[in-house]
Amino acid sequence: PFFLQSLGFFTARKHYKTKRESFDSYLLLYTLAGCGLMTYQGQTVKLPVNSIALLDCRAPHYYRTDTCDELIGQGSMPVGSRQKYDTDRISAGNYQAVTAKGKPNLHHDVFAEKDEFADLAQQPYWHFLYVHLSGNGVRFFEKQINGQGLVVMRLPGGTGHSLMESLVSVIELADDRASGLTDKRTCALNHYGYDLSLHLHHLLSDLASLSQKQKQPLSRQSYRQHIKAVIAFIEQHYHEDLSLKQMAERVNMSKFHFCRVFKEQTGFTPYGWLTDYRVRQAKTALRYTEAPISEIAWQHGFKDAGQLIRRFRQQVGVTPLQYRREQYLL
């Protein structure tokens, strides 16, 4: 069987974070707007708009608000659900989820128009739907979906995806069960409802199907597009202290897998490509400016002038100062 413990919407502001373990529940998180970051089973992954993940809360886990500037937007909800659950609105601040001992709950946030909370657009925030579940059936699907790690699934574009229909069916059924009760923020649900269990089964089945599709090996063309995106990121941020982890997270790969794919696509390691690009940009600065070597090193992502000189000599065959003098003689 499948049991619904609680569900609700939550707006997490800039400094929001949750860390816990040994919590007897499974948690389904779906990002509607903004972005989150989760650490679970040794992995740290982003949860951008339209992403959904299922985790076992008995294992240590941590999640917080994060930034995903290139992915900020609104999540997809089927048209039929827009009136009840309007994702074009932002909930008014954080709220405390009240629990009824031994009973599942439906948590309603207070909604307000976007322009009343325009400050959210100026800082990191994360607006998500959460669903807490229990039951042996959930355990089976969690293992099937995640294996030994955590799979973050991206919902396909459009509003007609069957997974979204299943999710909204669960929400609306839970809301119908809660209607008529005096407490609108915390409403008891039928823990053993057969129809609710059936809808949860459909939802988890759709999640399992989506996870299997997205775990299939990417085609060479897909890898090429992923690496092109990383190269564009490098070219925009080469002057910063970039890490392998940052680059791999751009395409949602493990560091080991990312290094292998990058080398296959470019012939370089990620750091090799980054260093090559930094040296090429430094050559331009040496040729067209009179900036000191130490300043050029700092401007182009090198720790100091010594590191620039070593990398430059390895790649170009001469020191930066020799290269600059040669340009004056041309």
Brief descriptors of the model:
330 residues; alpha+beta; 41% helix
Tell me what the structure shows.
By secondary structure, the chain is α+β, with helices and mostly antiparallel strands. The chain contains ten helices and 13 strands. The strands form three sheets. The protein has a seven-stranded mixed sheet. A hairpin with a 2-residue loop joins β4 (36-40) and β5. α2 packs antiparallel against α3. The longest helix has 21 residues, at 194-214. Mean pLDDT is 76; it is low at 70-121 and 180-192.
Number of helices: 10
Shape type: elongated
Cα-atom radius of gyration: 25 Å
Let me know the average pLDDT: 76
Number of strands: 13
Helix content: 40-55%
Largest sheet: 7 strands, mixed
Strand fraction band? 15-25%
Structural class: alpha+beta
Strand numbers in spatial order across the main sheet: 12-6-3-11-1-9-13
Order of helices and strands: EEEEEEEEEEEHEHEHHHHHHHH
Low-confidence stretches: 70-121, 180-192
Distance between the termini: 79 Å
Short structural summary:
The protein is α+β, with helices and mostly antiparallel strands and about 325 residues long. Helix content is about 40%, strand content about 20%. The chain has ten helices and 13 strands.
